[in-house]
């Protein structure tokens, strides 16, 4: 969830000595503000979202770099990051508050203790097609890689598949998951993996009860 440097037409007006030295009439000021509002509303206009079938291909080929976020989501992430640092001091502090964990010390291995992992909604999802819900599972324990392949170890994948077969049994045909490699982890402080659900029912989400950030 890497941030980006955002600036709007309002920034241009304020940063330009030539433009800022001119006195604007009330009417022109209102018009300028309306134009900025419209451009902010249209910030995602023309961006093609990632289709479900394409996600399958990217995951199969391990092309996770093809995932991207909408400009509006990147803007929100950047803005929220400032508030987060001021409020919690760090990402770890934010996660402890969100997950209601005092520490990140696991009681057992993988998914042997319910207290060691939690489902949350992803507040900054990638640009998925409409109807896709993006969840994150945060883990106090490690999810080791296979040293030969560089991808998540087979026994870890098996444990995740078993967990999801239990937790998401009625949506197994409309479910995808993956764990980002180190260079794509926007939150390296705590182990986690991602889940996508296509058109999950409200009843299912209520039962699963992911934490809302």
Automatic annotation (TrEMBL):
- InterPro entries in the record, alphabetically? DUF3605 (IPR022036)
| Chain intervals for the UniProt region annotation (Disordered) | 1-35
Cellular component annotations (GO), alphabetically ordered: cytoplasm
Query: One of this protein's GO BP terms?
Result: N-acetylglucosamine metabolic process
Q: List the Pfam families hit by this protein, alphabetically.
A: DUF3605
Low complexity bias: start-end ranges: 14-28
Superkingdom classification of source: Eukaryota
From the UniProt annotation, give the residues forming the signal peptide.
none
Which residue spans adopt a coiled-coil conformation according to this UniProt entry?
Answer: none
Name the UniProt record assigns to this protein: Uncharacterized protein
**Source organism of the structure:** Microthyrium microscopicum
The root-end lineage is: Eukaryota, Fungi, Dikarya, Ascomycota, Pezizomycotina
